[in-house]
Amino acid sequence: MGNKENPHVLVVGGGPAGSTAAALLARSGVQVTLLERDTFPRYHIGESLLASCLSTLRISGAYDKVAAHGFQIKRGGYFQWQHDTWLLDWDKLVDAEAWSWQVERAEFDDLLLRNASDQGARVIEQARVTNIVFDGERPTAADWVKAGDDTVHTLEFDFLVDATGRDGLLAKHFGMRRQHPAFRNVAVWSYWKGAHLHPDSPEGAINVASTEEGGWFWNIPLSDGRNSVGYVVSAKLAAEKLRGHDSRQSYYLDTIAASKPMTAMLQGAEQVAEVKAEQDYSYVADRFCGPGYALVGDAACFLDPLLSTGVHLATYSGLVSAAAIATTLRGEMSETDALAYYEYTYRRAYTRFLSLVSRMYEHYVGSEEYFAHAHKLTEVYQGDSPEQSFTRIMAGLTDVGETAGTQERTGTEVIASEAERLHTDPDTDGVNIKYMGGLDMSPVWDHWRDPLVDTDMGELRITTEPVFGLTTRPRSDAEREAVSRPVLPPRHGAGAAH
């Protein structure tokens, strides 16, 4: 690899992870084909973006298209969790330029897919992959068919990016996906007109309110005046509750009526869509990459909707994988080393969020202890307080800072040890860890632990100057300018919360 004049990368899946990887590789001069099973735009849940997405959109070329669309500006979150209230104002706790959007995913994902095409990727929709051809463990070709046509097309490639989400093309092939015994939750949601946010919320903030039975609500304002309102609870409890209702609609409205915060936010509002439902569970692949392939986004791992990490992890993995692949294809680094960096980086991000979400569900004993725990999961940025550390993590900025070289990289040992303890320790500080206990995750952590520690790769980071990829050199002034954050949007411009 690296010596071939025109290497070809196949991306399977056109969601945010696949579209981001395809756009970045195409911008780097790589020949890219993206096969997407559906026709975009198509509906998808997961509307709340983290601030980290802006820098990735800028590097991939999609930022201007997304910014011009008029999505609802988001500047933080307002959490009513158990007996605590968290006012997570990104302006005040992190940075005045930390913001993102609440998006209609059908439109957002479509913009990202079209951007991949605009950057030079060959995008084929309604294309279903039926078979992957391997040479040993290395994929070398894909058979695919177009919807409504039985003709089998075979496409040879030099590298495969699996962005097939929960379908898990390669994870299922290799039998390497592990489901966490918990996070088996059910989400039910609909859309409302005339809903409100809590009056103390930052502009466009996601509102989260927990319930006594262990579930939680989201309330997300969208640009068209609708609010996405959903409820997440364990599948077991949902099944018990549903038996007492004649429909999902009845169950959904009953859960809202039982919640004082949600009753207040929906006072005078009108439900304008049918109730949708989806079963959530958390899983992780034993490895995120191998000879000639990388798993990105939900194809590698799925966490939980609680901290709105879905699009962040998708675009972040697309960014890091593309940097590793582009560097390898130019012959600047061995495939093994570049992919080790990808594995290290993406799993670190996922596992840090896993630890935080686990503690929110089962080990939450107050905001002070919880923020202190988050503080331990990162190298503290410029004297951040525990609350600031948590907010920086949940805005996605810790991950971006670590890969860009603007923040010290957190060692895997700190994060892996905590995650491993949550899986194996039945009792921590007197609190039973029901969510994570009982699953042997040692193959995952053993494969991951510090692959870069004893090599020159310890200072590796993502660069955009002079080319996109991985580097060990210090950041230049030109690079700082190239990846600088976009100009602040107006405070109450188009798409502001009603």
From TrEMBL:
SUPFAM superfamilies, alphabetized: FAD/NAD(P)-binding domain (SSF51905)
Residues that span the membrane, as ranges: none
Position of the signal peptide: none
Keyword Oxidoreductase found: yes
Entries under Gene3D superfamilies matching the protein: FAD/NAD(P)-binding domain
GO molecular function, one term: oxidoreductase activity
Extent of Basic and acidic residues compositional bias: 474-483
Keywords for the protein's UniProt record, in alphabetical order: Oxidoreductase
Coiled coil: none
Region (Disordered): 472-498
InterPro entries attached to this UniProt entry: FAD/NAD-bd_sf, Flavin-dep_Halogenase_NPB, Flavin_halogenase
UniProt entry tagged with the keyword Calcium: no
EC numbers: 1.-.-.-
Family: Belongs to the flavin-dependent halogenase family. Bacterial tryptophan halogenase subfamily.
Protein's name in the database: NAD(P)/FAD-dependent oxidoreductase
Naturally occurring in which organism (per UniProt): Nocardia jiangxiensis
